[in-house]
Amino acid sequence: MTKHHRPPLTLANIPAWLGVGMLWLLAQLPWGLQRALGAVLGGLLFVALPKRRRIAARNLELCFPECDPAARKKLLRAHFLALGVGVFEFARAWWGSIAPMRRSVRIEGLAPVRAILASGRGVLLVSGHFTTLEMCGRLLCDHLPVSGMYRPHDSAPMEWAVLRGRLRYASAMYTREHVLGTVRSLKRGGVLWYAPDQDMLGRDRVFAPFFGIAAGSITATHQLARLSGCAVVPFFHRREGGRYVIRLAPPLADFPSADPLTDTTRVNAAIEAMVRAAPAQYLWIHQRFKRRPPAEPSLY
Q1: Is 188 domain-assigned?
Q2: Average pLDDT of the chain?
Q3: Are 217 and 201 in contact (CB under 8 A)?
Q4: Mean of pLDDT values over 225-253
């Protein structure tokens, strides 16, 4: 589990501390105002981030070829609106009150997960990188003792502030390098949340289909299940207007198998189903198909 010691204030990190302070102040605003400001911010991001806008547009073209250009353009704008609101959701989940969200959240599938935990078996919650992941993760922590795996921030002040915020509700936080800690937690019957849907370098990677495209995919879900004996539960979450819907799907049957590619393909299929349920809220600005199989051309 990661430690969080507050970094000293230095001339070099003053801008980062100011950014943390601004986000903390934004986290205290009323939820209705945050949603309105988030929509404005989303519009600004659409204009201010042309490279990310092009990446998102290309991803939508690759993943939804059946949609006409006008429909994809509408989805692209809806995505940036979700990104803008997501900034406020992240800040509020870390440092603000979620009382308004608790009053209207709908959570499905808790009983089967609790039954798995009661048997002494751990649960690995598998999701994707959605704009709602932090808020819905915090809401789920009201009902289950969830720990998380994450990639540390480059900025020391932001890393300290975010980790401190997350540890207000998460049972523990592990970096991707702390594999043994996550395995021990799962073996002890813990709950771990993990999003394995980003294309990263590493030995434990295969090319598995995602929206019908061979996507560089880490095999961590297969490995964690193999090492710990945990159940793998797809974790769906989305925003519907001003409320949140969380669904814990039935655990993947006969998982893991002996084949990492087979298992990673199943995980990608589960995440694809999540994306299709809330397409605007998925993180399309990430180059999901950056690395290609040998001899295949770049998609960007």
Answers
A1: yes
A2: 93
A3: no
A4: 96
Range of the domain at 167: 14-281
| Total tally of structural domains belonging to the chain | 1
Q: Is residue 253 part of a domain?
A: yes
Nearest-angstrom CA–CA distance, 222 and 262:
9
Q: With respect to residue 236, please indicate whether it lies within any of the assigned structural domains.
A: yes
* CA 199, chain centre distance (Å): 13
Q: Is residue 6 part of a domain?
A: no
Mean pLDDT of 282-291: 95
Tell me, yes or no, if the pTM score tops 0.90.
yes
Tokens of 213: 């495209």
> pLDDT tens-digit profile of 23-78?
999 999 999 999 999 999 999 999 999 999 999 999 999 999 999 999 999 999 99
Please report the sign of the dihedral spanned by the C-alpha atoms of residue 218, residue 230, residue 165, residue 133. positive
